[in-house]
Design a protein that fits this description.
By secondary structure, this protein is mostly beta strands. The protein has 1 helix and 34 strands. The longest helix has 15 residues. Pfam families: Cytochrom_D1 (PF02239).
């Protein structure tokens, strides 16, 4: 009876304080902020590491998050809580200061990421199965809205990709199977106002919103080009950009779907991966026309601007996924070729960009580079690390 009571108390603690789900927690007892903390996804073990980007150390390991293949997360406004979206449909709220799970719900059968509203009140999850978007209260994870991605006349549901937050307490996302972009204003969460844009192009695979929140772009997998929506003037509809950028060239097999986020914008130029090509495309964000192409080592996956916009870092799909290249934005030349380890999956800059953390999944490590001289500052062990996410994302649109 006593043991049973103890277990019940422990489970209650998980729900309220998350104290039972942490291990190896080294956080000092003194008060501290969260601005230099971050999370590393350990996909194989269903756990996350909480790290300190100032001290270059791991301060806690939190297990019990389920299937974390292709997991991503967003942060609460204060940077204390990470909302982790698992591939198995789990949505887990992790307390970075306590190194523990605060809340966890199973919300879908197959989830692919999410976003948090401008006011921080709502967390939205984008789902493959069942296709659609579900919205939860950020404090309690109570489901408050369910927007199925139904399309056509046959009762089909589309996979949802490219979900992003937008100014005005809106969310915007793409429907892979339907070829549509939808927006939802959640200012009144009881009656979200959904607007649909159809025939935007075949198979949008991901989306990004510009750092100012004005433009939403969906990359198209089914054809060469991208779809652009002006969030200031949605009444103008969606326009095509980069139309036919691969015209006249032989298509190569695509080994990994590239990713898009607002991090690819540096100054007035956007740097985006060319699907199936060994190129990074450069667009002028005033005219939305292509202005240059940069030859790179393989098929780009992540194309990320250093926070000051001086460099663009690129990693690649198999078989070139052990490499990272750095592009100088002034010359648009590759100025550095790095080999951080086997199966590089993600890169994350510190808030002001003096360092970048890179996950090498098959070497079970995260490598920290100095971005001024490309020297290795630290290597941290991690179990099959994938995504790395620092808390400064909490204050940025589209993250």
């Amino acid at each position: 009876m006593i043991n049973k009571l103890s277990r019940m108390l422990c489970l209650a603690s998980v729900a309220l304080l998350g104290a039972c789900a942490s291990s190896g927690y080294n956080m000092p007892s003194a008060l501290r902020g969260t601005g230099d903390l971050g999370v590393i996804i350990e996909r194989a073990s269903g756990s996350v590491q909480i790290v300190d980007s100032s001290q270059l150390t791991s301060i806690a390991s939190v297990p019990g998050l389920g299937d974390l293949s292709h997991a991503s997360l967003v942060y609460s406004r204060d940077g204390r809580y990470a909302y982790v979206f698992g591939r198995d449909g789990g949505l887990t709220k992790v307390d970075l200061l306590k190194g523990a799970i605060a809340l966890r719900v199973m919300q879908a059968g197959n989830s692919i990421g999410g976003a948090i509203s401008q006011d921080g009140r709502f967390v939205a999850a984008q789902n493959y199965t069942p296709g659609g978007v579900k919205i939860f209260k950020a404090d309690t994870l109570e489901l408050v809205a369910d927007i199925p991605a139904a399309y056509g006349s046959e009762g089909k549901f589309s996979k949802v990709v490219g979900l992003a937050d937008a100014p005005g307490n809106r969310f915007v996302w793409s429907l892979f199977d339907a070829g549509e972009i939808w927006t939802a204003d959640v200012s009144d969460i009881k009656t979200p106002r959904v607007e649909k844009f159809k025939n935007i192009g075949r198979e949008p695979y991901d989306g990004l919103i510009t750092p100012d929140g004005r433009y939403y772009m969906a990359g198209l997998f089914g054809e060469d080009g991208m779809a652009l929506l002006d969030m200031w003037h949605p009444e103008k509809g969606v326009r095509r950009i980069l139309d036919g950028y691969g015209k006249g060239s032989e298509k190569l097999p695509v080994y990994k779907m590239p990713h898009l986020r607002g991090w690819a914008v540096a100054g007035r130029f956007a740097y985006v991966p060319a699907i199936g090509r060994h190129e990074v495309l450069v667009m002028d964000t005033e005219s939305w026309k292509e202005v240059a192409r940069v030859k790179v080592a393989g098929q780009p996956v992540f194309v990320i601007a250093r926070p000051d916009g001086r460099q663009i870092w690129v990693n690649f799909a198999f078989p070139d996924n052990g490499q990272v290249q750095v592009i100088d934005v002034e010359t648009r030349n590759v100025i550095k070729h790095l080999q951080p380890g086997k199966a590089v999956l993600h890169m994350e800059f510190t808030p002001r960009g003096e360092a970048v953390w890179i996950s090498a999944r098959d070497d079970n490590r995260v490598v920290v580079y100095d971005t001024s001289n490309f020297a290795v500052r630290k290597e941290l062990p991690a179990q099959a690390p994938s995504g790395i996410f620092f808390t400064h994302r909490a204050a940025r649109i589209g993250f």
